[in-house]
Design goal:
About 35% of the residues lie in helices and about 25% in strands. With about 210 residues, it is an alpha+beta fold. A hairpin with a 2-residue loop joins strand 6 (about 115-125) and strand 7 (about 125-140). It is globular and about 55 Å long.
Length: about 210
Amino acid sequence: MHRDMDKIIAPHGPLTLASGSQIRRQLLETAGVPLAIRPARIDEGAIREALLAEQAHPRDIADTLAEFKARKVAGDGLTLGCDQVLALKTAIFEKPDSKEAARDQLHRLSGQTHHLYSGAVIYDGAEPVWRHVGVARMTMHKLTEDEIDAYLDLAWPDVASSVGAYQAEGLGARLFSRIEGDWFSVLGLPLLEICSYLRLQGWRFT
């Protein structure tokens, strides 16, 4: 249930979300956070490639991309930038651009444990004031080719927007034997930490 704006004390006004992600928006709105949506347009691929060339850790890549997004649209009040990175050992995955690419990603993740890093950076005006990277450890069942094909027949193209070609909150749940860490970070947003920061800034959800 969404709460009315007049029941929320938000000293800085609505939080600007520098993302077009529907699930991030839904998580924040369900938690009662008033939002202004301003998706940031940055060249994520070029930034990611530059960081990989410098052998940056996946955690740092998620953090840097989140900051670029927040900085891009920052104005008055608080602006939140977010990014999620999937890392299988030293390999960084991107969103699959075809069903074949999705099949390849699932084949590589099958029977393996990978990590999701969900970066969040908040700007106050033109300055970064808070940052956090949530981590989840994801262990996938050993999947047969038939299982992968059957899953994609149901899940594609919905999972085209998801790195790893799965959505663990939906059909993708059946692909995993174990998930460790913050569930909200699996969804791409360290929600508890964000809400805790807002409370420290005088926000009250009444």
